[in-house]
Specification:
This protein is mainly β. The protein has 5 helices and 19 strands. It has helices at about 15-20, 55-60, 70-75, 285-290, 330, and strands spanning about 5, 10, 55, 75-80, 130, 140-145, 150-160, 170, 175, 180, 185, 190-205, 210-220, 225-230, 235, 255-260, 270, 300, 310. The radius of gyration is 20 Å and the shape is globular.
């Protein structure tokens, strides 16, 4: 399969939380960066057959130089949860070290029942559902998939560890520690340093032979699983058009897909799961079904903004993230196979 892709990633940072990274964050001689070009084709006038949510193919191919327009317009709304008012998750962090020339060293998994120890807080104590979270980095890259004739934009978050899983699975009469499949191996109940999770937004042509593209669906990644959804199957919101961020209906065909983040494993889900159980719960089903039971709710939300964006071509696919081997750099080789 012949795959044309542009290695363009970006990361969203808060100034306060990441000011220590310095201005040399983007310096990375070992990873190719797309330099500003003077020969970028000018975006032509949009034809009347294309809607307001359509973008020209050159805006994907030259994502950085055209101000990340399609990536920002379809940026996910990330939704996080807490449980029992005392257990909160980790927020995503930058995937590089303080020099920008190596991976974040991550954090050893703390021996705690809470998945949010020794890491950045998602946000202030919730005042109710959908409390605004703190800003955090999201890594983005555009890929053209020749076989399916699609543009795919990847949105991925980095966590300093995958937390301790204290759930147990009942298999017959035996009870044993839960073992989850991770990206390229297994993640034991003890967790592991580093974790990458996210989604992909798919774009199709407005018309055959046309070079204007609209959102057609999304892929929600749950470790080694990649679940495809049509756009009208998703819970989507406009956010700025009205106070619709708390709307949990599907079929609205709005701009931003909501991603409900798994409380422990950081897996991505298109719907809420208010079981109010603190851990995974299953009777030895297939792993996909077990992950579907992971707790997630709606305590915090965040939509990354354009003014927060920095290019994230600093994530070298050869960097070692331990068990989290599917980082944004390596994903570009596989994203069209999902």
């Amino acid at each position: 399969m012949k795959t044309l892709f542009s290695l363009l990633m970006l990361t969203v940072f808060t100034i306060d939380a990441y000011s220590s990274l310095g201005t040399d964050l983007l310096a990375n001689e070992s990873y190719p960066q797309l330099e500003p070009r003077q020969d970028i084709p000018e975006v032509p006038p949009k034809p009347p057959t294309s809607g307001p949510g359509s973008f020209h193919g050159s805006q994907f191919q030259f994502l950085k130089q055209t101000d990340f327009a399609p990536a920002v317009d379809a940026m996910p709304v990330w939704v996080y949860s807490r449980t029992q008012k005392e257990f909160s998750p980790c927020a995503p962090e930058g995937g590089t070290d303080t020099t920008g020339k190596g991976p974040n060293p991550g954090t050893n998994v703390p021996p705690s029942a809470s998945p949010g120890e020794d890491c950045m807080d998602v946000g202030p104590d919730p005042s109710g559902p959908y409390t605004l979270a703190n800003a955090f980095p999201t890594y983005v890259g555009a890929v053209y998939c020749d076989d399916s004739d699609e543009w795919r934009i990847q949105y991925y978050n980095y966590y300093v560890y995958a937390p301790l899983i204290t759930s147990f699975v009942r298999c017959g009469l035996a009870r044993q520690p839960l073992t989850l499949a991770s990206h390229d191996g297994v993640m034991s109940f003890l967790g592991h340093v580093h974790d990458w999770e996210g989604i992909v937004v798919k774009w199709q042509r407005d018309a055959e032979g046309d070079n204007w593209w609209h959102r057609s669906g999304a892929i929600y990644n749950k470790h080694c699983f990649h679940d495809h959804y049509e756009w009208d199957q998703l819970n989507t919101v406009d956010v700025d058009v009205g106070s619709d961020v708390s709307n949990e209906a599907t079929g609205l065909n709005r701009k931003h897909p909501k991603v409900y983040v798994g409380f422990f494993s950081h897996a991505s889900f298109p719907e809420i799961y208010k079981s109010r159980k603190t851990h995974l719960n299953a009777d030895c089903p297939e792993l996909r079904d077990l992950l579907g039971n992971e707790y997630r709710s709606n305590d915090w939300w965040r939509l990354p903004r354009r003014e927060d964006i920095r290019p994230a071509s600093d994530i070298d696919p050869d960097w070692d993230y331990g068990d989290a081997t599917s980082n944004p750099g390596t994903n570009f080789e596989n994203i069209c196979k999902w």
